[in-house]
Amino acid sequence: MFKKxxxxxxxxxxxxxxxxxxGRWATKRGxxxxxxxxxxxxxxxxxxxxLIKFKIKAxxxxxxxxxxxxxxxQEINGIFNLLRDYLAKNQNDFFEKGVKIxxxxxxxxxPQDLVDQLEDIRKKTKNNDKLIVNFxxxxxxxxxxxxxxxxxxxxxxxxxxxxDISDNLYTNFLPDPDFVIRTSGEQRVSNFMIYQMAYxxxxxxxxxxxxxxxxxxxxxxxxxxxxxxxxxxxx
Length: 235
Ligand code: FPP
Known about the structure:
By secondary structure, the protein is an alpha/beta fold. The protein has a single domain (12-140, 177-225), classed as Undecaprenyl pyrophosphate synthetase. Helices cover 42% and strands 14% of the residues. It is built from 8 helices and 6 strands, in the order βααβααβαβααββα. Strands 3-4-2-1-5-6 form a 6-stranded parallel sheet, sandwiched between helices. Helix 5 links the parallel strand 3 and strand 4 (131-139). The chain is globular, with a radius of gyration of 18 Å. The mean pLDDT is 95. The structure holds farnesyl diphosphate.
């Protein structure tokens, strides 16, 4: 019902989503935090459908940051279990919907079965071309830059360009995110793609992530389309 209002020629090429507010959503209902994350997964599923409907080609969900290890073991294992479950249960859907699953971040500290599961799904879905669904896992923007620079040093480079860095970031297979949405009203980027976000448009709706739906995405896209993007130049 919203489709006709979205102009196809001025849509973001890659949306970053910082899914904030799962904990508050659960606490407000007297539920444990992990039920907030569970509801957060349901919002991921609905958002993927809405992104396909609005013809967006790539999205990155910030699912686990390099700082999230500070949370309790119970919460961390809960998130890992939800991710395992999500990837296992949605395989058919990825094919029916044309979703390609990728991930960014340092997986060396992730449980090996989850790393294998992600790699298996990446390979299986690599030819799907409706929407790239990229999960940022043990991802930090600073870590991304350090990792890229270390790779360049290993190659023997002693002088590097912007392109060298971009080509070696975890996101080298994606355009920079032109639109970044952070739910829950917090207005921070929290070490998300800090290098790639140099010219991103930012949007901070008040809605808590588990309540985010197609209507919120539509409002976000409408807002993006009103932005005057000059990239440092003059119109
Ligand atoms: C932020 O809410 C959310 C997270 C740190 C984790 C988000 C993870 C998921 C939705 C599950 C991951 C799996 C997939 C498939 C993406 P918060 O806990 O910081 O909320 P609060 O600020 O209200 O406490």
